[in-house]
Design brief:
This protein is α/β, with parallel strands linked by helices. The protein has one domain (3-174): 3-Layer(aba) Sandwich (Rossmann fold). 41% of the residues lie in helices and 17% in strands. The chain is globular and about 45 Å long. The relative contact order is 0.17.
């Protein structure tokens, strides 16, 4: 049986992170469950050459963000965890405050209550104290924060190189094998 993982794409800038994660997982032995928020759908059109249908085809199962009765809203639905890339401050706030008003937040809440892995690619800058407190609360509940901050030791030459390095770090957390960037030696 394939390992299951949930991917959420929320409305922050940087939807390419979520799309690249989906592309990479498509080539691996994972069953991918996807939620795309309405704001993320708009950003896919604004920021990339993809359309929403193309992105949805990268997943095995796609959920409507309003369907809080979906399988992934239950702790009995076993997964390896969840990645939200990018994660907007609005989504972070919902997660940090357990404000389960949509499937993205409910699924993340389930991941946390079941002590599974939750990676949040927080995409905001600069951060004010309210953001920092939300991040702290998410960490205290068990989330791991992956701000998409580029490193340069691997000498990136393209935006894709920068995106892939962040995705590679997230995949390391889930123990997903990859060759997305050159490691430090």
């Amino acid at each position: 049986m394939k390992k299951r993982i949930v991917v959420g794409i929320s409305g922050a800038s940087g939807v390419i992170y979520g799309i690249r994660i989906l592309e990479e997982l498509k080539m691996k032995d994972y069953e991918v469950h996807l939620i795309i928020t309405e704001a993320a759908k708009k950003n896919i059109e604004y920021e990339t050459d993809y359309d929403v249908t193309q992105v949805e085809k990268l997943a095995d199962v796609v959920y409507d963000n309003n369907d809080i009765t979906a399988a992934i809203s239950s702790g009995s639905f076993l997964t390896e965890g969840m990645i939200i890339a990018p994660c907007s401050i609005k989504s972070l706030s919902g997660i940090s405050n357990s404000f389960n008003n949509n499937l993205l937040i409910r699924a993340a809440d389930v991941i946390l209550k079941e002590k599974r892995k939750l990676a949040l690619l927080i995409r905001e800058t600069p951060l004010h104290l309210g953001h920092i407190k939300l991040i702290e609360n998410a960490i205290l509940m068990g989330a791991l924060i992956y701000p998409p901050v580029p490193s340069f030791y691997h000498k990136p030459e393209t935006i894709e190189d920068i995106v892939n390095q962040t995705i590679g770090k997230v995949f390391d957390y889930y123990k997903i094998e990859h060759n997305l960037f050159r490691r430090w030696k």
